[in-house]
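One chain given next:
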Amino acid sequence: MREGMAERGWGKVNILITSVGRRSYMVDYFKEALGGEGSVHVANSSAMTPAFARADRHVVTPLIYSQEYIPFLLDYCRENEINALLSLFDIDLLVLARHREAFRQIGVRLVLSEEGVVEKCNDKWKTFRYLREEGFLVPETYLCPESALEALGEGGVSFPLVVKPRWGMGSLALMEAETESELEILYEKARRDIFRSYMKYESIQNPEECVLIQEKLEGQEYGLDVMNDLQG
């Protein structure tokens, strides 16, 4: 990583990692890669994170959905000559992507995908529709119990069904229904859980369709890590 930065003429690099949470190992990775040619700054909405102790500098930010969040980050980047900014929290990505130009104007490169890509990835319903349109095999997915029950009656899917937030991560409010009555109850419980958590901020844009019901797939799960440079 260090050689790649030098080859591209970055020189001394100051990096800001937002929503750093507990990932102190990420701070160590970047400090090792920079080799003293720059600094690693971290930001979080709470100071209760071990990553603060590992970074060169740290700062407590306003909440992600606060109107002060982006202005706060822009000011911090200016004052500390930040060259690149990345986030470790999925919900943070769309907020940052929508302000890419403001960061570009002060010389800060956002290391994240374009707004449209982030939106498709954060919204599981849009992910489902996009993958199906592109010809990928996907689990049957519904936005309400009535649609799922209709599919059950037609033999398109069978119990158990997975109930999950349309926006969200980390298996929060993820449940499994094995009967019609469970489906109705768990659907409403998922809605309540969503609006008691950070997931409410994105779900509020469509509160009547903020829960997904999906066909449960059995089989081996595979993960894929993709490494890329800043050109793609």
